[in-house]
Recover the amino acids of this structure.
């Protein structure tokens, strides 16, 4: 066991830091952009004011928004966002 501990300690370590709200929104916007989803400033403000800035929650929300835009064949609007959030 001491051998295993020393081997693990000899490897690279990376420190993960907690993201602040602007950084979380930037990651959210980057993910949306990679999926081909446009998040306008009104939607971003609504998210900031009314939603958790938890990345797991936002990633799930983004997936649901992606599906909703495909089903409804329209861009993300505040009413559509509210509908998804109230499920």
């Amino acid at each position: 066991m001491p051998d295993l501990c020393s081997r693990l300690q000899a490897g690279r370590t990376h420190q993960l830091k907690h993201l602040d709200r602007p950084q979380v929104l930037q990651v959210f916007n980057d993910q949306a952009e990679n999926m081909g989803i446009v998040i306008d400033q009104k939607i971003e403000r609504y998210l900031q004011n009314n939603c958790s800035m938890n990345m797991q929650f936002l990633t799930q929300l983004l997936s649901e928004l992606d599906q909703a835009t495909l089903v409804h064949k329209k861009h993300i609007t505040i009413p559509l966002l509210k509908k998804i959030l109230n499920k």
